[in-house]
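S., here's the first fold you wanted:
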Amino acid sequence: MKKSESIKNLALSFHKAQSEMSGAKKGADNPFFKSKYANLEEVIHCVKKPFADNGLSFMQFPITHEDRAGVETIIMHESGEWMSSEFMLKCSKLDPQGMASAITYARRYGLQAAAGIPSEDDDGQAASTPAKAKAAAPKKPTASEGIAIALSADPEAKWFEIMAPTKNEPYAGSTLGDIVVQKDVAFLEKMNRFIEKHAAQYPLAVKRLEMAISEAGK
């Protein structure tokens, strides 16, 4: 993160703006996965008025480096104070379509992260709901079984997190939909082979990956 020499006024206004922001509603439809997500327009809607009412504004500029593309998000205060952060993703293809997909994704998540906006039904809300009864700790699944279970339950779950401790995982914390957007067919095929040993027990996971491979290849 980079910032101006002082962010005293910015920090005060940012605190007030955040108290006025609501969570980003997952109102956009993803017909392929029959799920919803908070699109860029919704994230901007959450930010725009609270920012304007407190002397804040933002800008986002496309940036690239080798095989990565993304944005630099700059939050500014009317006093001239500012802070910025970069967010880049590896492009599945080094062509305009691949770079545009990475930049669009980075704009949404870069602004959402910088402004501290959660999705209304994100993992934080689920974690804040107390359990009715403490259940016995289940047996920890293998990485391949864990991915199969997550895919069977919810294709929009951040199921690649199960792959840490894989080093330099390009899609750690991503959803299946994110990988389809990146059109990384080779990676999806690799995952399909990774979980095929669980095909009989979790056929829905295999089916969803096969559908994702088909969609990403279009």
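And the second, which I think is the more interesting of the pair:
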Amino acid sequence: MSARKDKGRLPPFVPIDKEMMDCPAWRKASCGARVLYVHLKRRWNFKQRNNGRIYLSGRDAEEEIGCGRDSIERWYRELQHFGFIVMTDPGGLGVEGKGKAPHFRLTEAEWPGGRNGNTWMLPTKDYLKWDGTPFQDDRGAVSRARKRKQNPGVQMHPISDAPGGVQMHPISRVTTMIAPSDAVRVLPSDHRMSLVTADPDGDEIGPPTTTIAVNSRLPWHAPTVVEVPIEILSTELRLMALGLPFEHATRAR
């Protein structure tokens, strides 16, 4: 092509509809979801009429955007929630074991439809029909983080007065309720036991005292925590404190 015909011709670019950019759904979408939409729109070709067969695998999206797989999957769900894309083929694992990425349709562009798929359909623009419901995701990394928060496992407790300086000892998250106002926290055998009592306002009344006795029942708004060695607990509670199954110990009896 001559230089005269190339004059004023733009290089390859990704067009974005201004009406879509001004809609509330686009403004509520996260920045990551918008970037993913641009990379997905890059695959759209008007001449090939491939809307409905556009795909971008998670691996390719990771390389192009530079983020993790969980973020890519969350942004795909977000784009579907706001109505920017519609999944036409969920993809999956093929017969020969070769994976197939999901296919999507951009709602801002025309798409082939009809009974035989040869009818040129008008854009649906589902993002203009967004009802204002915010996007809430409870899958992927969000779900795993919530599970870790509910069951964080064995925690480490520093002991400053231990021989040789500061040492770290595991503390179990398992607690045994003795009474509505008392609880037992499992500590290693070489740790000193202390009893701390607090008033209803949460202020400490006095310095900790070394004891193993359980205080008399107090009102529920003034809890008492007693730290005891692990040796005085039963076998089941020891195994629970260490996070080990105790079914075999029960059967052995």
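Why I say that: The radius of gyration is 31 Å. The longest strand covers residues 182-187.

Talk tomorrow,
H.
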